[in-house]
């Protein structure tokens, strides 16, 4: 894994000092070769030992090892993207749009490394074997809950989605062992969602959470946790990146559900055809 991708993917789990180091490296990767660990510490107003501990926590032997790996990653990027970079600079191009695409791509790459294939397959298997799938998300998180519930229904999977906590609590009371609850919560701190997840587990259901890559109460209750790395200094950009990265995760799970069962895939095609016929004049 690229050291820059690794830093992005772990940033949300870092301490305040570690995030300062991470942000400096991400923003000044091209200049890192000119900095010793002491110079980097001086630039950030921290101790040299903090820099060393940061690199070791990421799995590097020391700061020189990190600096060398970052240099190699930059070299590979320069060689691989030499033809793509000028596209944003063409007359009539859209630099802001191109930059947004790049930010989204970086977040999706970091998120892909956080969620192992085993984790994704565990989510697919849990949904595949569930009698019912319950979904809940509040605010913007409900957009993903609603959209994924519709897709599951098209596959013939019983999907029960609510954005009202009290109604979901009543629905959960009808859950059976082996059912799945998918909780969408960006920050993972809503007390009501944690209570519902805890109650669902008491009924021997399996809880899947979709949150940021942080330690949070909702994620702590998960049987299977999907994590999202989507940091950006601009709050409006960070929200867009998070939403698109969650969608990429859900799309991946959906594709696995389609590819893993021919009968389910055929049912999807039939349902899409039926909907199309209903929409035609």
TrEMBL record:
InterPro entries: Homeodomain-like_sf, HTH_RpiR, RpiR-like, RpiR-like_SIS, SIS_dom, SIS_dom_sf, WH-like_DNA-bd_sf. Residues 1-77 form the HTH rpiR-type domain. Keywords: DNA-binding, Transcription, Transcription regulation. The keyword Transcription regulation applies. The keyword DNA-binding applies. One of its GO terms (molecular function) is DNA binding. Residues 123-263 form the SIS domain. This is DNA-binding MurR/RpiR family transcriptional regulator. It comes from Luteibacter jiangsuensis.
